[in-house]
Amino acid sequence: MKARVHITLKNGVLDPQGKAIEHALTALGFAGVKEVRQGKLIELELAEQDPSKARAQVEEMCRKLLANQVIENFEVEVEA
Question: Residue 50 belongs to a domain with what CATH number?
Answer without folding.
Answer: 3.30.1280.10
